[in-house]
Amino acid sequence: MPRSVNVVAARHRRKKVMKMAKGYFGRRKNVWTVAKNAVEKGLVYAYRDRKAKKRDFRALWIQRINAGAREHGMSYSQLMGALKKASIDLNRKVLADLAMNHPEAFKSIVDKVK
After folding, report:
1. How far is CA 103 from CA 7, 51, 69, 90, in A?
2. In the chain, what are the helix, strand and coil shares in percent, each to the nearest 5?
3. Assigned CATH for 7-113
4. DSSP string of 80-102?
5. Domain ranges of the chain
6. What is the pTM of this model?
């Protein structure tokens, strides 16, 4: 009896990977072994950078809040401590947006906690 190989499933799996490799440069887009490695590496980067993106945005928000706070004579840590003490629950994303786009609202918050 001849060996049975599930070609349908194997082709489906390869097609799925080759579709993910669309847009890659050179042999990475059309040679199976090269494309498979490139797609696997790309998925690793995607997983890693979904986590890193959160860290990057938090760092950006902290820089913006710090810049806004220093315009009003406070440091970032002083402002965050005062906000916690005054039990004002605004997250860093909202505070950064206020500091950048609505400076008068941010100033009123800083004045309230001073």
Report:
1. 63, 30, 10, 15
2. 80, 0, 20
3. 1.10.1900.20
4. HHHHHHTT----HHHHHHHHHH-
5. 7-113
6. 0.80
Q: What is the dihedral of CA 35, 37, 41, 42, to 10 degrees?
A: 10
The pLDDT-based confidence of 102 (bands split at 50, 70, 90) is very high
The one-character DSSP state at 28 is G
**What's 65's DSSP letter?**
H
Q: Tell the residue number behind the tokens 């206020």, with chain if given.
A: 98
**b/e code 38-68 from CB counts within 10 Å (16+ = b):** bbeeeeeeeeeeeeeeeeeeeeebbebbbeb
